[in-house]
Amino acid sequence: MIDPDTFDDSQKQVLSLIVEDLNGPTSVGALLRMIENIIYSIKPDIELSNFDNDPALRSDIEVCMAALNYMKVRQIASGE
Questions:
Q1: What is the pLDDT of residues 9-46, one digit of tens each?
Q2: Cα separation of 75 and 11, whole Å?
Q3: Could you give the residue ranges of the DSSP H alpha helices within 1-80?
Q4: I need a surface site. Which of 33, 39, 47, 51 has the fewest CB within 10 A?
Q5: Using CA atoms, how far apart are residues 47 and 22, in angstroms rounded to an integer?
Q6: 24 — phi, psi (to 5°)?
Q7: How far apart are CA 59 and CA 37, in angstroms?
Q8: Predicted TM-score (pTM) of this structure
Q9: Is 61:39 a contact under the CB 8 Å cutoff?
Q10: Are 1 and 49 in contact (CB under 8 A)?
Q11: What pLDDT shows up at residue 22?
Q12: Would residue 7 be called left, alpha or beta, if left means φ above 0 and alpha means ψ between -120 and 50 degrees?
């Protein structure tokens, strides 16, 4: 499970920008869904520990997945 409370300042900043874009007329939501589909098609049993040897990639995945989870919860809450 990804816990945004443990994010460093850089991750928090990127997550904030993504969430801000979700409220606008961009395709960020569609891109997050594509990233999710790509990750799970390449590695269906994804575990973040598999990316310990590449901290930058792990950080990017954590931020994208946190933003995706936020988007999903927001959509459910709004009835979308």
A1: 999 999 999 998 887 778 898 999 998 898 888 877 77
A2: 23
A3: 9-22, 28-42, 55-78
A4: 47
A5: 26
A6: -115, -175
A7: 18
A8: 0.81
A9: yes
A10: no
A11: 86
A12: beta
